[in-house]
Amino acid sequence: MDVIVFILKVYFVFTIIVMIVYSIRHFLFAYKRMFGRQRLYYTDIVTTDLPRVTVMVPMHNEEQVLSYALDALLECRYDRDKIEIIPINDHSTDATAKMLDEYHARYPFIRPLHRTGDEQRGKPSGLNDALKLATGDVIIVFDADYRPAKDMIMQLALAFQDPEAGAVMGRVIPYNANANLLTRLLNLERSGGYQADQQARYNLRTVPQYGGTVGGFRKDLLQDGFDTAVLAEDTDLTYRLYARGYKVIYANSAECYEEVPEDWRVRARQVRRWSRGHNRVMFKRTLSTIFNRRMTLRERFDGVLLLGVYAVPAVLAVGMLDTLLLFFLGEMELLSIWIVLVFIGAYNSFGNFAPFYEIAAALMMDGGKQDVKLMPLISFNFYFYTWNITLGFFDNLADIITRRQARWDKTVRFAGRSQGKTDSPAADAAVGAKDASGEGNGAIPSETTPVSSTGAGYAQGGKA
Known about the structure:
Layout: H1 2-35, E1 53-59, H2 66-74, E2 83-90, H3 96-106, E3 113-115, H4 123-133, E4 138-141, E5 147-148, H5 152-158, E6 165-174, H6 181-203, E7 215-218, H7 233-243, E8 247-258, H8 264-290, H9 297-307, H10 312-328, H11 334-352, H12 356-366, H13 378-402, H14 425-433
Helix pairs in contact: 1-6, 1-10, 1-11, 1-12, 6-12, 7-8, 8-9, 8-13, 10-11, 10-13, 11-13
């Protein structure tokens, strides 16, 4: 029994150390973003030597949203002779295929890829098939519910003038932020995750993350394709690039507008999938990151912490059980256990899952005065995310133990259900960026205005 008590106490200390480390990390990021020297993106570069670009848009039953994405891409300013668009129709059973063929008939450089056979489904597999057809030197990926600004492709392509740039990541802003309470909270997470967290990591030269959408990468660096056993192909690509000596560039001014989930159950499934995929990469890449001599010591340290963000909820959930066991074994007083549980909850509300520091800093920079009133509700997210992310962590463990193939779980779309539509994607984005008071959150779509993880609550802001 003494051995069990000793192990429980060691784990309790380990949990406290984990919380302190991540708390310092998020505070440092928020401070650096607000008061530190800002590292600028390549927006001032003027060149006619832009790379040929292939834009890929993975789709599965996307008839509700695909026209918004493709119309927005058609409005993007980029040399038509240097761009092709490959929408990836991944076994859709609705009108997706028909709609894509209609776009192809009008715009030949839109070249749909229809996946209808027995091949493996999912985003990584679809991207692998599209890579075989792509003629671009740079691959830019958008999810079907995303609506890029007119200068988006141009801004992302500029990053590859830097020979060290292996990938680039833009900023994501919800266009349906005013739909309900959930979307408002997700808007806070997105603001903190991009405006503060990603930019701070870029400032500090650590590991900004390629998020799988609203970003691009060099095609020649992915000749062997994505690992189809990994749901978080974006996280895996980030570490593959750093392992080869390349960097991920963050473009805070390259803004794209997305639809965030409007239903708690949909959000729960989404976060659980993110956790499952991200933790798979954690087990796969942690040791190689620690010993990667092509990464600086700072990059390796932050890289390991980034890999661990979706494991932290499981660590803390077990830490709570650990505390209860110590109490029932007579090793902790009742008052002490409540102090510990309250501390863990408060820490995760204002330190890790939806970092108070970073969200507060981002709202100040974005001008989201009304959204500040929602910040006390972040504490609920701790329990919501702890449950669902921990389930994803154990899903991944089961995948590894049983060697089963993880299946892609598409996020349900809500376009048209909660907001009126217009004929302009930019106008729709502007409607969604307004808060309930009618005041903008500082992220109103604009062609020129620069606007807007990471804690586990919004760690992978670009995932869909």
